[in-house]
Amino acid sequence: MDWTALELSLRLGVFTVAVLLPVGIALGRVLAYRDFPGKSLAEAAVALPLVLPPTVFGYYLLVAFGAASPLGQFWQAAFGRPLVFTFEGLLLASIVFNLPFAIQPMQRGFEAIPPEVRAAAGCCGMSPWQALLKVELPLAWPGILTAMVLTFAHTLGEFGIVLMVGGSIPGETRTVAVAIYDRVQAFDDASANAMSALLLAISLAVIALTFAFSRRVGRRLG
Amino acid sequence: MAGLEVELRQEAPIPLDAAFACAPGEVLALVGPSGSGKTTILGAIAGTYRPREGRVAVNGDTWFDAGAGTFLPPHRRAVGMVFQTYALFPHMTASGNVMAALGHLPPGLRPGRAAELLARVHLAGLEQRRPAALSGGQQQRVALARALAREPAVLLLDEPFSAVDKATRLRLYREIAELRAELDMPVVLVTHDLDEAAMLADRLAVLHRGRTLQTGTPEEVVTRPASAEVARLIDQRNVFDGQVIGHDAVRAVTMLDWAGHRLEAAFNPAWSQGSAVSWIAPDGFVVLHRRDRPSRGEHENPVPGVIETVLAIGQTAHLTLRPDHDPRLPLHFSVPLHVARRNAVAPGVAATVSLLAEGIHLMPPAA
Question: Which among B232, B266, B295 is the end of a domain?
Fold first, then answer.
């Protein structure tokens, strides 16, 4: 059992969720309520990670993060270390490939709030910020929670992009999914088996808990 | 100026050409068919919709002035709004919903004030219920209490009675009528129901495709519509074309030709001899003659014909008469059911009605 890999996977999941929570709320809300030129294109771009092969997506990220790219050079200059094959690079990649999992459920959550209910918040004297905190977030909460869980679970499970952008450096970029692959390659079936079972159990538990929770919320709002 | 002043104009996306005022304590009903822009106009007053041109001012404060670029968002306008679907916050209790509009009070005072407001709309004891656990009428009352909580300078009611059953609606009418005495702000009521408007409002503004066609008391609008279009919009069915034959100042009548039948209308010399007009005879001014005592010509504007339909609704019989001089121009009127029975009114029988001259109202010819 590679506990370092498990710890790294969990850390990557938590960090990804932490970054995507505010980003998803902001972008999901804009996509739900605003009309702007190029909105369809923006929605398509957000959905892209769902349809592109992880190798294609990973390859482009690798190019975008590489030492020859403006982003890679900026990162090297600012932090004194490269972006590819580091935890930071992996986190950035994880944020990008999780965009659809974070934004789409949140967008649906915001869209489900009737326009009159949002108008009522303003007519009750709430500023846009108060309306967001007191009305929109509590009502979009099931969608936001689903987004967070999907993002977390998907981060634990992602393999192709992690391998492309991060490689398999113990303690830095080797996640559980990569470690399992590594163990299988080394004919260490016992370890692969244990880690696979654990990952399966964690994922199942997290998703089951979410379903139970959103059903409770649904009943409450009936 | 005290009260609400509204002036809105735009060509697209929703055509608007509306102007009206509403004094403190006055109830103004915006009436018109669905799609006539009523809800859009309320949105423009509340600040949830921004029209291209126009002005909205309340008690001298400008909320919207396209020329000056002024547009206050809803939370900066002292407005109370009851939405058609109530739009209660489903995750808050009745009390929480009302407290959500009490942001101007210190937090410690809000629960007490919310309880007071809920008691005022007869919901004492239900403060801790969520909207899902309240009936439609109760939700409607919470919405009203919430709209009043902000101590609004204008109260807006968007089809507030359309989603409740009739018994609840009648009860709510009475409660609104009672509450009115205590309200000192302008109240704008949107409805497509003319009876409701006539019952609750001091004045009506008739809207069609975003235009205010006529503003006046319910009686004025119903008996003296400004045009045939208004007459049709307020469901006035006896709208006909005619021609002014002449005036008789001595007898104070204006003579009218109605498809070859001569009628006398209230004296109105503004219409020159020979001019084409539209005219109406509102229901209350069509009088059925007793069938056992045939008219000998002493009645006002007798119109003989054949009864086509008799429809009893409650204690009222709604009748249609095909006039003998032109059966293509049916007259609609109603009489108490017992009158219809006593006169043995039935489809196919001959009957005569009088069109009372004072009720015949002339309008510009329909386009």
Answer: B232
